[in-house]
Design goal:
GO terms for molecular function: syntaxin binding. Binds to the SNARE core complex containing SNAP25, VAMP2 and STX1A. One of its GO terms (biological process) is synaptic vesicle exocytosis. The chain is elongated. It is built from six helices and no strands. With 133 residues, it is mainly alpha-helical. It has a domain of 60 residues.
């Protein structure tokens, strides 16, 4: 029966004992091999990280060259300048700085100017009708 099982499993005799509930064979150097394997994995991971750090540094140098060539600022620089401008504007203020209102939002003066502009294009007979009411 063992012969048939060995042939069916393709010679996987070490795992055979484990599958049938037998005891595992103890490897005297198993602990040492496992430590060496873990160390090799750690070393490979460090090499991989170093490689990608070098690649990213090269990319950043290329990006900086392009920024210098075309006068583009980094996002962090733009954000820092905007924050500095907001702090500078609110130095003497005790309240938080007001948000800028976009043009055309909520101002009545602009609504009146729009109405005046429309009224300019209405023919005179219709203007008289509006003025009588």
């Amino acid at each position: 029966m063992n012969f048939v099982m060995k042939q069916a499993l393709g010679g996987a005799t070490k795992d055979m004992g484990k599958m049938l509930g037998g005891e595992e064979e103890k490897d005297p150097d198993a602990q040492k091999k496992e430590e060496e394997r873990q160390e090799a994995l750690r070393q490979q991971e460090e090499e991989r990280k170093a490689k990608y750090a070098r690649m990213e540094a090269e990319r950043e140098n290329i990006r900086q060259g392009i920024r210098d060539k075309y006068g583009i600022k980094k996002k962090e620089e733009k954000e820092a300048e905007a924050a500095a401008a907001m702090e500078q504007a609110s130095e003497g203020s005790l309240t938080r700085p007001k948000k800028a209102v976009p043009t055309g939002c909520g101002e009545e003066e602009e609504e009146e100017s729009i109405v005046d502009t429309v009224m300019k294009f209405i023919p005179a007979p219709l203007m008289d009708m509006f003025n009588k009411k």
